[in-house]
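Review form for a predicted model. The reviewer records the input and the model, then writes brief findings.
Reviewer: anonymous (R2)
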Amino acid sequence: MSSVAPVRSSDDGSGPARRAGRAVGRALHRPITGPAKGIRRATHAHGAGESGLGKLIELHAINGAGDMMITVALASTVFFSVPTDEARGRVALYLAITMAPFTVLAPVIGPLLDRLPHGRRASMAAAMLARAVLALLMSAVVATGGLQLYPEALGVLVASKSYGVVRSAVVPRLLPPKFSLVKANSRVTLAGLLATGAAAPVAAGLNSIGPQWPLYGACVIFLGGAFAAFTLPHKVDEAKGERRARLSTHEAHSKRPGLRTVSRSVLCGLLANAAMRGLSGFLIFFLAFLLREHPLAGQSAAVSLGIVGVSAGVGNACGTAVGAWLRARAPEVIVASVLCVTLGVAVLAAVFYSGVFVAVLAATAGFCQALAKLSLDAMIQRDVPEAVRTSAFARSETLLQVAWVLGGAIGIVLPLNGVLGMSVAAAIVALGATMGIRGALSAPHHHPQQRTSRPKVA
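Model under review:
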């Protein structure tokens, strides 16, 4: 018996069956594992995987997808499901209960998070977990649109902005070698935009089943995000040598650095970006009601909103991509230039108001806002000492979020007149352009003696 060779599995046909099963399994997994591996290669390229930036890019993509799910659920209840007059009242109530308290809470977020420098991963995980719980709570009342929905939406907003503040402070800790902060922020932002765009049709499909289903999806996504936050490197929680920054100081020789004492161009760039962020909030709310009442020629309200929304999204993505490609050695000039371009388009939209100019303004605002924000990041990297740089990012991000809220409030109370709305948009941008030009005039290249002491931006 010992001389009898064992029977091969292929002799009875089980070998080919196993091979066929494995082939089928690979075929079924390839549509999932293939794109996943491609995404991982893209996010971890050029040293981002070794530094940990790749994991932050993926975390921000999760954040964008989850926020989009909640946005679709709220829009379907607060805006699309009721007549225009009632929708305007609901959105005004949303601003009163959600946005108004946020303008009070937002300035507190940065200083509060400054006190938790050793718990940044936990802070981001907590922001994800809080939104997962709130999404589940909102799913119970989203169909009726009850008042309970609005405080929960406020909680989602605060958690989302808290994540954004911490994320801005974390990026400098994860820069790969020979990687500029502009390029790093471009990658992170672009990943969020792509994830948001990918999640939008999924959220719309879930919403067709019921308004609570996008919230179920958001809950699952944010739970995954809470876990992903703890996969970031431990150096994210390091705070050695860091101090808290202030946006300004009244003491001429204060030893506590603030953005005004470091560089006037940084403060001007921040105020110019605040105008762009205010324009973004204004256009979102104003055009949402204007195009619902007066759609683009030959289009329905939904299609009109879709055209403007896609234009803004594409413009923002293109601006982010250009920012990653452009070596921003003169960020003040870039900020002034994009503000002036946006102002010119806004004036043309006010004088020759039409659907085409509205779409062009949305695309221009998205493109220029992305470039202006990336240039502001470059200025902070160049002019703010490393000891307070992460805190400066937190404070600047908080101010920009408050500007967005104020712009949205203006868009809500303004009469639905296209020419008037575009004129207000031009006025908002004009204030920012003034600050952008002042920043360009005070840029470091006007002071040759300071050149040698400043590192290159890109």
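Findings: The first helix runs from residue 14 to 43.
Further findings: Confidence is low (pLDDT under 50) at residues 8-13, 249-255, 446-458.
Recommendation: see findings above.
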